[in-house]
């Protein structure tokens, strides 16, 4: 039976083709998992641009779940919404089953919560997660891409090395596509009762607007610095380091693109180029890194900080995202995030010099605590790599300026203030 993909896909949060015109949406492959349950790969082509392949686990049944959006057509629905089907997928990982060209694997020495009744997460995300109580979170990848998935790859390395600052990888499953591996999903330990770093940091900076000092966060910033350094150390020990020149060409391209769209950047352009030139020649130590680190990618649990989502820089091809880079790239990402968490409190507010001073003080204090914590764990202080760190911070701020000018002009001040400081 052909399924009405063209009608159903646009109703799904994870579908990325909404702004394009579909030419065709066809089932490209069917892997029967058990009676009434098929893993389906759906190819979508558009009038322009690249085709996409999506994954849907289809359950053929007469009693669909009441969940809105789960029903594909009469008698067929998204199987993740049936707890017993989600449990079944987990059991395939537990037994290390291969069905057709789909292979399910479990990490050595872990146990999966096979008896828990799962529920589909309501988080707004580009994949679909199923939560098994407070024990495991199963992420089914929706838009498929051939190649090694850095999130699975790095979580596997970090988990097997028993690094305490990641959600332990428990299992994964994949297939092949065009002769390459193609990841389909992963299961990690669920961080119960966790708070996202961004929520914690902005709760602290909100206190600044109510005349508070908002210092509650600097102990956290310190521990976060230690956690990031610990993850870097494990990645370096397990996957090695080498020396390379920094990707200054990419930084220059990004600067050129942003400068042509943001007139405010013009007066800083030469100074930024100068900063890039300073670090262009000198080889630096590179290693595998997180690649997209910010306060939204860290969870605070009762036992400490966890880094999640090792996918690397969004929108880049997978080989770019897996390229060894300076650990300072991650440090810079986190420092930028501290500035955002604080300076966003000034957006759309009448100028208030006292508040601005408190905000600046919060940023200085927490960036310093983060670097102190990083240095305590790593034995080397990020501030000793000032030129490299500044280049990465500038690169990030330049990108942000392009983004804000386009989508949130009221926020443009945040990256512009940082750029002025960094070249000042
Ligand atoms: P996005 O498209 O937003 O990047 P995604 O599909 O890549 O989403 P994740 O970023 O991995 O999914 O996770 C989405 C959310 O699920 C996270 O912001 C976090 O709140 C929660 N989450 C992820 N992993 C865990 C975990 N191990 N324990 C608890 N919560 C988690
Ligand atoms: Mg994510």
Automatic annotation (TrEMBL):
GO molecular function, one term: kinase activity
Domain Aminoglycoside phosphotransferase: 221-311
Its EC number(s): 2.7.1.175
Stored InterPro entries: Aminoglycoside_PTrfase, Kinase-like_dom_sf, Mak_N_cap
Domain Maltokinase N-terminal cap, residue spans: 8-73
UniProt keywords, alphabetically: ATP-binding, Carbohydrate metabolism, Glycogen biosynthesis, Glycogen metabolism, Kinase, Nucleotide-binding, Transferase
Pathway(s) the chain acts in: Glycan biosynthesis; glycogen biosynthesis
SUPFAM superfamilies, alphabetized: Protein kinase-like (PK-like)
Broad class of enzyme this protein falls into: transferase
Gene Ontology annotations of biological process type: glycogen biosynthetic process
Chemical reaction(s) catalysed: D-maltose + ATP = alpha-maltose 1-phosphate + ADP + H(+)
Quaternary data: Monomer.
Annotated family: Belongs to the aminoglycoside phosphotransferase family.
Protein name per UniProt: Maltokinase
Origin species: Mycolicibacterium rhodesiae
